[in-house]
Design a protein that fits this description.
heterodimer, A: mainly alpha, two-stranded antiparallel sheet, 2 strands, B: 75% helix
Chain lengths: 477, 464
């Protein structure tokens, strides 16, 4: 029952929200709904029995597809990430004003329903359904409330992702036919043990879909523009949670279904990821716009996670699990600061800012901690994740790990450069009249910073939470 | 048999009501009532409760699949009458004749869903097509409509001639007009001695049927005819007639596909790819939504051709589901298109602000045509792709991948309309829209979403 609630609560509140008119009521209702989802997830974390955490109902008997959803370790962690992100985003952007507020918040909640569905589906057709469904509200969100070039950019994003998912659909259809009992359930599909030739083709069909989502070089061209043009609240969800859809899908669907192909093409994928990491970091150094810089930095971080998955060892995989959660938290924190700066000062360019720390000291402190988390400094949560991932990559291939390690240095370059340009130095005309962040933003950032530091010192809870998934994947190899 | 007789009778009733009744709204209502009677008669026939028995000497065969397809077509026509009936009244002065012609088209459809004999195939195609030639040219003052009608007539007659040639060759080889391939020794011996006659005859029939369903490279009449005819009748042609054409197409080749020769395995995928390519790529460059829908109907035909590629139970369910999804969505879109004053993409700018219900329903129809999950169109495309893989396994995978890539292309031009409605500023000029119209399109959109979540709702009737 609990997994059903995870989808139903945001879905129903999203649909209801279309009809609420009062702006304050809309924001409080949306916040309340996301907090209820959070409570459901937290209660799911306390439960351990399988039958309480899974749900299966007949849906398309003639097609062999059931509406079956289940929460395992990784699913719980990502559900937790989703459930935490939405209240955080709502509180942090509560001062943003949108025309047609009810539609905006309704579409955000519908996105949450779709995202939850992706993370808990155990039936391939249902997974595909939710994968697409998470995309539609985002398309409308970005196209109506986005920046100047939003229509063309979001269209490109949509078609790009749609092509990927259609390729995945072709793969799913093929697997369906190979399955002995004509079903889409993940258990029957993973028991298939396909021939090498089939695995190779299917691996690429699926991987291209996930690579577009993550994104991995060379399928990343939609991302910086889309993140820049989207309304910041949507960008927080896009980079905080939606990219995890891609990584999650690789771990949940790609590795168990095509183990031999995953080993065979591991080198190709890791090289692509590392190229993406270095390339994105170099471009990030050249950026002047906060949003674009965070977008490129995101490509770099995700590239590392993708590389670590294909290193095929337990340590790397544990690192990926932790980093999925950590990156979500960190990047949302960065976006909150970007949003605050944009709302207050009206510009996102470093060249036009400076000396903000003198006027907004609290914001500066909190941002610096988040930025250090972005660089993966020890004591922050990202350090644990990156350390484990590099460890895994190192065990796989020393040279690849060494090249990937350059990206840490580059991350330090662009992040510290950004902080220095925005916060330190002399104040300029725009920042002369800046005030410190308001209390809601401040408290949200404090909570996030606490999470960053606590997980940086004591990451064991997340490792324990996702242990069963890691063991299951390790058992395949 | 009910459907054939009743539809012809309804056509005659409509003709005479034109003499006796002058009020066009009354004529439209009579048409709707007649259609309801027709639907009831067909359903009674399906369940064997009340069937007019005529000795058809095995030329017609009434099975559940064909009769259920009749019901689907008649229900789609009913939706069409409800949504666009008042627009039919506005086409010209001979309103009753238009309805009569539509009923005669339905008679042709009923024959095509139950034929068992190539002569009946010819009869059905002609009864289907001739009223359409007339309907295309009903906008008498418009040069484009006249041109479309003449073009359709000439090319249609030409293709029917090829059909007859193919039927003649088939008769010459097999000695009978039967559709099904003979299994006796005399039959196969005759066929073995005939050399090239049999494949050529079947190829001619294939070409003629491809013309009727506007499969490439026999699609060239479609854009001009669809664009030139009054939009109300384009709506009818693009959906119901095409679906009926496909049912006839797969019925003809059900047992004879192997007799086309080894080249059948090359010809059919080639036709599918050509159709998808031409339909999708040319639709991308259109400036007028009506013409874009005409080209997109060619692309949709490409997907329906998968039923020819794979003959199994999934493809039969699939073609039925595709007919339902495609007809409902296209009838809906055309119903809204007819209300717009400007048929270009810019004419839709800002529709979401002026008519939110219409824009939302239009979005559902466009998403269904594009094949987005949660709409009936997704499961329709899905069934067709599934049937292909079931038929041919790994060698079908490349065809499926090409088809899904073209489906992604189709998203581009369908979403251009959504973008114009929601994201661009403009004054979307519409004719007067009644509340009942908005209610009807909303119900239609809800049905499409319902079938998109539970496709068994539509398909279970096949097995009852």
């Amino acid at each position: 029952m609990i997994p059903v609630l995870l989808i139903l609560v945001p879905l129903l509140s999203g649909l209801l929200l279309f009809f609420v008119k009062d702006e304050k009521a809309i924001k409080s209702f949306a916040l309340l709904s996301s907090i209820i989802t959070l409570i459901v997830v937290v209660s799911a974390l306390c439960l351990n029995q399988a039958n309480q955490l899974s749900f299966s109902a007949a849906w398309l008997p003639t097609l062999g597809s059931r509406f079956s959803i289940a929460l395992d370790g990784m699913g719980k962690m990502l559900a937790l990430l989703t459930a935490i992100s939405f209240p955080v985003v709502f509180i942090a952007t509560s001062n943003n004003s949108y025309k047609n507020t009810s539609a905006f918040y309704a579409l955000m909640l519908l996105t949450q329903a779709g995202l939850m569905g992706v993370f808990i589906a155990t039936d391939a057709l249902l997974f595909y359904f939710f994968w697409e469904l998470a995309l539609i509200p985002v398309y409308f969100l970005c196209s109506i409330w986005g920046g100047e070039k939003r229509i063309a950019v979001t269209f490109k994003f949509f078609i790009y992702t749609f092509i990927g998912s259609l390729l995945m659909l072709a793969g799913i259809l093929y697997l369906y036919f190979k399955s002995p009992d004509a079903s889409f359930a993940i258990k029957s599909l993973t028991g298939l043990h396909l021939a090498a030739g089939e695995q190779n083709v299917l691996f690429w069909l699926f991987f291209i879909a996930f690579a577009i989502k993550m994104p991995v070089f060379p399928f990343h061209t939609w991302q910086p523009d889309a993140y820049e043009q989207a309304p910041t609240a949507a960008t927080m969800i896009l980079s905080g949670v939606m990219v995890k859809m891609g990584i999650f899908a690789v771990i949940r669907w790609l590795l168990p279904l095509f183990p031999e192909a995953a080993t065979k093409y591991a080198n190709v994928v890791i090289v692509l990821s590392i190229v993406g990491m270095i390339y994105a970091s170099l471009i990030a150094i050249k950026q002047d716009d906060i949003k674009r810089l965070i977008a490129y930095s995101s490509i770099a971080h995700i590239g590392l996670m993708c590389a670590a998955i294909f290193a095929h060892n337990t340590i790397g995989l544990e690192g990926v699990m932790i980093q999925m959660f950590n990156h979500g938290i960190n990047v949302i924190g960065l976006w909150i600061v970007a949003n605050t700066i944009e709302q207050q000062l009206g510009t996102r360019k470093f060249s036009e800012l400076g000396g903000l720390a003198q006027k907004a000291p609290t914001l500066a402190i909190l941002l610096v901690i988040m930025a250090l988390a972005n660089i993966a400094l020890p004591l922050t949560n990202a350090f644990v994740g990156e350390f484990l991932m590099f460890n895994g990559l190192f065990q796989y291939n020393v040279w690849m790990a060494a090249v990937a390690g350059i990206s840490i240095v580059l991350a330090a370059v662009y992040t510290l450069n950004m902080i220095q340009k925005i916060f330190y130095g002399k104040t300029v005309a725009i920042t002369e009249n800046a005030v410190d962040a308001n209390s809601s933003v401040r408290w949200v950032l404090i909570v996030l910073v606490i999470v960053v530091l606590v997980l940086g010192v004591f990451p064991q809870p997340i490792i324990n939470l996702t242990k069963d998934t890691v063991n299951a994947i390790a058992a395949i190899h | 048999m009910n459907a054939i007789i009743f539809s012809a009778l309804c056509g005659v009733v409509m003709m005479f009501s034109g003499i006796l009744i002058k009020n066009t709204t009354t004529i439209k209502n009579i048409a709707i009532v007649a259609l309801l009677v027709l639907i009831a008669a067909n359903i009674l026939n399906t369940y064997g409760i009340f069937s007019i028995q005529v000795d058809v000497t095995n030329m017609l065969r009434f099975q559940t699949f064909g009769l259920y397809f009749n019901t689907v077509v008649f229900v789609a026509t009913l939706i069409y009458f409800i949504l666009s009936g008042s627009d039919i009244e506005n086409v010209g002065i001979n309103v009753a004749e238009y309805f009569a012609l539509i009923f005669f088209v339905l008679c042709g459809v009923s024959i095509l869903s139950s034929f068992n004999n190539t002569l009946m195939l010819f009869l059905g195609i002609e009864i289907l097509s001739i009223p359409l030639y007339i309907l295309t040219g009903t906008d008498k003052k418009n040069l484009k409509s006249n041109e479309a009608s003449l073009k359709y007539f000439l090319m249609g007659c030409f293709s029917t001639g090829i059909l007859l040639m193919g039927i003649t060759l088939l008769y010459g080889v097999t000695g009978s007009f039967a559709i099904e391939s003979a299994t006796g020794t005399s039959g196969t011996a005759a066929m073995a001695n005939s050399g090239i006659l049999l494949p050529v005859g079947l190829l001619f029939i294939f070409i003629a049927m491809s013309f009727k369903v506007s499969a490439a490279p026999f699609h060239f009449w479609t854009p001009d005819v669809y664009d030139g005819s009054p939009s109300v009748f384009t709506s009818f042609m693009a959906t119901i007639v095409k679906a009926a054409g496909f049912i006839a197409f797969i019925r003809v080749f059900e047992t004879r596909i192997s007799e086309l020769g080894a080249s059948a395995k090359i010809i059919i995928p080639l036709v599918i790819i050509c159709t998808l390519l031409i339909g999708n790529i040319t639709a991308v460059f259109q400036q007028s939504v009506k013409r874009m829908l005409a080209y997109s109907s060619i692309a949709q035909a490409g997907f329906m051709l998968f039923a020819l590629y794979s003959y199994n139970d999934i493809s039969k369910e699939g073609i039925l589901l595709y007919s339902i999804a495609y007809s409902f969505a296209t009838i809906g879109i055309f119903a809204i298109l007819i209300k717009m004053k400007d048929y270009t993409f810019e004419g839709f700018n800002g529709l979401a602000k002026k008519q939110p219900v219409l824009a939302a329903a239009n979005t559902v129809f466009l998403l269904s045509l594009a094949g987005i999950p949660l709409t009936a169109g997704f499961f329709a495309k899905y069934y067709m792709l599934l049937s292909a893989i079931k038929a041919n396994g790994q060698s079908a995978l490349w065809l499926v991948v090409i088809a899904v890539l073209f489906a992604a292309v189709s998203v581009y031009y369908y979403f251009k309309v959504i973008q114009a409605m929601y994201f661009k500023e403009g004054e979307a000029e519409t004719f007067e829209i009644k509340g009942s119209f908005k209610f009807a399109v909303a119900i239609l959109a809800a049905i499409i979403i319902l079938i998109g979540i539970f496709p068994s709702l539509a398909l279970n009737w096949l097995y009852f």
